[in-house]
From TrEMBL, chain B:
Matches recorded under InterPro entries: Cyt_c_assembly, Cyt_c_biogenesis_CcmC, Cyt_c_biogenesis_CcsA/CcmC
Domain (Cytochrome c assembly protein) ranges: 19-176
Protein name, as recorded: Cytochrome c-type biogenesis protein CcmC, putative heme lyase for CcmE
GO MF annotation, one: lyase activity
Length: 170, 238
């Protein structure tokens, strides 16, 4: 049975259902990419989960903990966040990015037997909250505006068709 | 008769505009959020550009449409053109607000400020206030024909802000970066250019679609009111 508003409105709902599915797939792919290439873990999570795959560890270099680095030797420092500290050995090239009290993201693996996070690369600090906010605050009102306009037009055609022409009282 | 033909034309072509816009925006979001690389300096936050710049460009495109329609209305006095003016103003306000909001969100991680009194930002905020004034004038003037005339004049005067917005980054030394695409060349990496172009063209076509739907909506609203006798009753009371 057709909805009370008429077939035009039914077509509108069908069109929008397809759009929602398409944009949900894009959203899912974007979240997957974020998980794969951007998401970081804190020293607290690192120590509690002891992951055996490559991870991005984010934290602040503790004051006075940065040592080594001379004669091609790796840097040693501790990263802290959320009240936990993780010892890090960094053997990458980007040595100028390391300073005391700087928040950084290092990419590497947790060596549970040595109790140290061996990193070879420094990544950019993620700020995905701003990106999500910008997309949510612009695209969701846009989608709602278009949907409400389309629905109003579909209903107006039905209402005009059903409305009797006004006859002024004499 | 002109109005009926015009609305018929809108009904015939609007679906194509909506379809093309949806495809381009879906491709733009996919490339912008999934496949394009982060910026060397800004990192991931550069992805805000793919929604901020199209919104700002479309806000200016919609005001330009309002300007053209206002001249057309003062020349021909067609009520359906006034509906198009009203629709363009509402959409321009929407995209201007979106441009200000996304710009503010982008400003915080890159400039460390939600807002600065930079010439580009200030002139864009003036566009927002002009559009708020335009829509308030429409609401408060009871004589619809007089209201349409005053609003058309206001829209034409307000158009002076558009070149100021566009050239503000050239005329004054400002915090806002100059245009990435200009006569000097293109200063965007090729893999960022793909989502940038797809979203820019997609949102512009979406604006054309929204203008078609909103103009129809305002026209049909007036038609329904006339059919119900509300417009006739108002005339009788005068």
């Amino acid at each position: 049975m057709a909805p009370p508003e008429g077939g035009a409105v039914k077509g509108l709902y069908l069109r929008w259902s397809i759009l929602i599915v398409v944009f949900s797939v894009i959203g899912f792919l974007a979240i997957s990419r974020y998980d794969r290439e951007v998401r970081t873990i804190s020293p607290k999570v690192l120590l509690s989960e002891s992951p055996n795959t490559e991870k991005r560890l984010m934290g602040m270099i503790d004051a006075g903990s940065l040592k080594g680095g001379s004669d091609g030797m790796p840097f040693r420092f501790s990263l802290s966040s959320e009240g936990a500290k993780a010892p890090v050995v960094f053997s990458g090239d980007d040595r100028e990015s390391l300073r005391d009290l700087k928040t950084i993201v290092v990419i590497g693996r947790w060596q549970a037997d040595k109790g140290v996070f061996e990193a070879g690369e420094i990544a950019l600090t993620p700020n995905y909250g701003f990106i999500t906010s910008a997309y949510v605050f612009s695209l969701i009102p846009l989608i709602l505006l278009i949907f409400s306009m389309e629905r109003r037009v579909a209903l107006l055609y039905v209402m005009i068709k059903d409305e009797k022409v006004y006859q002024a009282e004499v | 008769m002109v109005a009926t033909r015009f609305i018929g034309w809108l009904r015939r072509f609007e679906k194509w505009f909506g379809f093309v816009a949806a495809i381009l925006i879906a491709a733009g979001l996919y490339t912008g959020l999934v496949t394009s690389s982060p910026d060397y300096y800004q990192g991931e936050v550069v992805r805000i550009m793919y929604v901020h710049v199209p919104f700002v460009q479309t806000a200016m495109l919609s005001y330009f449409t309002l300007f053209i329609c206002s001249i057309w209305y003062l020349w021909k006095r067609e009520s359906v053109v006034d509906n198009a003016c009203h629709a363009a103003a509402g959409l321009s306000l929407f995209f201007t607000a979106g441009g200000l909001l996304t710009g503010s969100i982008w400003g915080k991680p890159t400039w460390n400020a939600w807002w600065v009194w930079d010439p580009r930002l200030t002139s864009f905020a003036i566009l927002f206030l002009t559009l708020v004034g335009y829509l308030m004038l429409r609401t408060f003037l009871e004589d619809k024909e007089k209201g349409a005339t005053f609003c058309a004049i206001l829209a034409i005067i307000g158009f002076i802000d558009l070149p100021i917005i566009h050239f503000s980054v050239e005329w004054w030394r400002s915090l806002h970066q100059p245009s990435s695409i200009s006569t000097r060349g293109i200063s965007i990496a090729p893999d960022m250019m793909v989502p940038f172009t797809l979203m820019g063209v997609g949102v512009s076509i979406l604006f054309a679609y929204m203008l078609m739907v909103r103009t129809q909506m305002l026209y049909l609203q007036h038609l329904l009111e006339a059919k119900q006798g509300r417009l006739l009753s108002e005339g009788q009371f005068e």
